[in-house]
Hints:
Elements: H1 3-18, H2 33-40, H3 45-52, H4 56-67, H5 73-82, H6 98-123, H7 130-147
Amino acid sequence: MDKLDKKLMVEQLDRKLAKLHVLKEVEVPSKGWINAIRTTLNMSLVQLAKRLNKSSVSVKEIEEREQHKTITLKKLIEVGEALDLQFVYGFLPKESSIEKMIDKRAQRVARDVVMRTSHTMKLEEQENREERLQQAIKDRADTLKQEMPKHLWD
Length: 154
């Protein structure tokens, strides 16, 4: 995959994820979404169990598994269908975008590489000036962002 393809993939993914950023502010109900939706609809465990062809005890266990984050995606989809809801999931970068995440990581890796080299040169009394070090870090980070080698994530 060439540099332009990688850049395009990052841009396309960032556009998709940007639509999910509004969800960052949404708090998951303390007892989970299934329980919140079921109780808001004034639907009993027995009624939801009937829709799922399960026992009310099984539905209670499903709600508890969601609350404890041990539920499967398959089960969430199944419950969503029983409630006539569409299940949606995704990931949001902790940074503002995938591009920022890559940039931050490239800066860190570049700094480590340049500073290791700088330390060796210092021991050999060939130390670089601070401006030169900063430029070397920037240049190395730019190269890492363009090439995005697998070792960027080691």
